[in-house]
Amino acid sequence: DAGVIQSPRHEVTEMGQEVTLRCKPISGHNSLFWYRQTMMRGLELLIYFNNNVPIDDSGMPEDRFSAKMPNASFSTLKIQPSEPRDSAVYFCASSLFDRSSLHFGNGTRLTVT
Amino acid sequence: DAKTTQPTSMDCAEGRAANLPCNHSTISGNEYVYWYRQIHSQGPQYIIHGLKNNETNEMASLIITEDRKSSTLILPHATLRDTAVYYCIVRDMTTDSWGKLQFGAGTQVVVTP
User: I need a labelling partner for B103 at 20 to 30 A (CA). Which of A66, B37, B71, B109 fits?
Assistant: First the structure.
């Protein structure tokens, strides 16, 4: 079991650029969650999917953020255009179904200058 | 409304048992108590969960009071690698998707030599 795999591990970009974060959930898991963590706000849920379908995106900050899950083994979180206030650690997590134990990746640390 | 209350921080000497309290006085009959921890620069990691009986695994023990209004996570022999933020979460496994829950601020545990 390779666990949840996120890439890149670190991303540094300039304001206005597009950023794409990637996640590969644990094989067989059918729920996937994207979180953002900052010192000020802690761990916040952005969006989650069941069976590749977005269920709740109310945590997505604004239209600059979008997430897709084209298949059961891959998801992306895109920010376009990026802003300095988007700097945070973004975590992806998966579970067998949305009520079983969550398994987190090691996150992508995003810095927007 | 926060469902759990945890101390902000606590210290523990290496090799000693670390006892982490969590108050969940409004817990309902179907809600489980979950514990996760987050080591610096990593994603949150599942530790243990329980409903009413005490639970033990290779990482920790979970002691839940008879009235279920509070619980204690016990790390029997703390090591420096146990330094982390520990989150206590209550959730109803039959109805509560992880998408509806908050992780809170947790307890920062520092294990000292």
Answer: A66
Which residue shows structure tokens 């239209």? A63
A105 in contact with B, Cβ within 8 Å: yes
**Cα–chain center distance at B59:** 12
CA distance A111 to A84: 7
Q: Which two tokens stand for residue A22?
A: 């990637």
CA dist., res. A82 & res. B9, Å (int): 34
Sequence-ordered list of residues with C-beta below 8 angstroms from that of B60, at least 6 positions apart, any chain: B35, B47, B48, B73, B74, B75, B76
CB atoms inside a 10 Å sphere around CB A39: 7
Measured between beta carbons, the chain A residues lying within 8 angstroms of B36 are 102
Residues of B with CB under 8 A from a CB of A: 34, 36, 41-46, 49, 91, 93-99, 102-105
